[in-house]
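Changelog entry: the ClpB family mitochondrial disaggregase record was regenerated in this release. Current contents:
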Amino acid sequence: HSATALGQMNSFLNLFLFLFPVRLLGEGVEPNHRHRLGWTSLMVAAMNRQHSVVEILLESGADPNAGDDFNNVYDTSREKGIHSLEGNYDIHPSEDEFSSRLSSRAGFRGCTALHYATLADDPLAVRMLLEKGANPLQTNALGHTARAYAKEGELHTLLLEWEGKFQEAQAKREAEERRRFPLEKRLMEHIIGQEGAINTVASAIRRKENGWYDEEHPLVFLFLGSSGIGKTELAKQVARYMHKDLKKGFIRMDMSEFQEKHEVAKFIGSPPGYVGHEEGGQLTKQLKAYPNAVVLFDEVDKAHPDVLTIMLQLFDEGRLTDGKGKTIECKDAIFIMTSNVASDDIAQHALQLRQEAQELSRRKLADNLDDVQKRDDVTISRQFKDAVIRPILKAHFRRDEFLGRINEIVYFLPFCPSELQQLVSKELNFWAKKAKQRHDITLLWDRPVLDLLAGGYNLHYGARSIKHEVERRVVNQLAAAYEQELLPKGCTLRLSVHSEDRGGAEGQEGLGQEGLGQGVPSLRLEVVGKDSTARTLDIRPPLSPDH
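Regenerated structure tokens:
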């Protein structure tokens, strides 16, 4: 009788475990809802071999690749802002949920339902999860895939087989995505201008992605051009494309911190017996964790020659020896150096080429020819690179072998008028979004505003000069008008350009109202009414120290 009763009880329990999730999900319960300490229902069901519950949750949209937020009771309680004793109270039931084999003191952060099904040695649950999109290559916080926890035999073979399938499918998806949406197009969405630089970098990365490169050496770029022109931003976007996670896939080294000989130790770590030996080097420590990262050496021209010697080994052999004598392999990394060396020569040459192109276009237009150049981009000639730029680089870096290991020297040119207007528009859109979010103010402007603000471009400061011009001439007025309670809540503001004579311009410079004399254009703020009428704001200048 007791055996029969036990069988009936198990049948009832299985029926309850099947019907209860169906009812909850039917009432709108989120299938990916987490316990307050970080695990999901799918993880519990996978660990406890509840196949019917696993199936219901997956059909209802439970994410098979969600990672567990639980680390251990002390860390998790601290992160969640609860007392560790209270956390312990929550953990004890979880030991029953996850079975006695999983200690609450162990670290399971990042484990997915697939990890837990593998730990439970349950091939059926593992197959169900894999067929619903579980990633067999996903790692937990310790860097282990589910297969690392599988026993030799059926489960291990199953996971190994699906890893191969997943890699093959992933490669096909990525190849199709690259064909549909080339890297050049992706980069141009985030970077204004610099079409030549983008094409050069994208072509080299395409060779690497498709196996047409020397796998014994990493890719090395040298970005040349003025400050604020997009060199660092292009490096970041390449890292985002290659790794998705910018924190893990992007390493930035400010080379102005390595100008002295003794600072080499900061770069690769101190040798045994010296202070800081255990800490490791700034570069070697990060490369060891992410050997395929995109590494940016910012302002490399400021680095000490001994640091360049270390970088030469890095570029030539694709490996680096740290202060402890350990070798770090990083042939899959991409190294990008930036420098302002020869930036003035590059800028002046580009401006000259643009003037020549414009003059040629005017002549062709006058002669009614069809092939008038409508684009503003120009190409740096090979002769200029060899006759002007390379001697400057050799004089500065003083070694041919260093320059010889650079795959591509990439030239960043000054912005042309159309690109300046894009920069101004981007900056104004940024502040228009802030105005709407913070103060419910709608900010509008027209084409002459873009032309006027683009005039603040400084060749030496690049896009930063446009940013400062917008802040000085537009944002200062907005802040002053807001302080003086001239902006009604929910109003619409229009930026406009005026050239009429206005007296009393003294003291207006801080508000961006400079140049209010006869015929000199200035920016004004107007409140636009519901009937489309506009009223110019009378913004009082701040008091001068004399007053």
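DSSP finds 21 helices and eleven strands in the chain.
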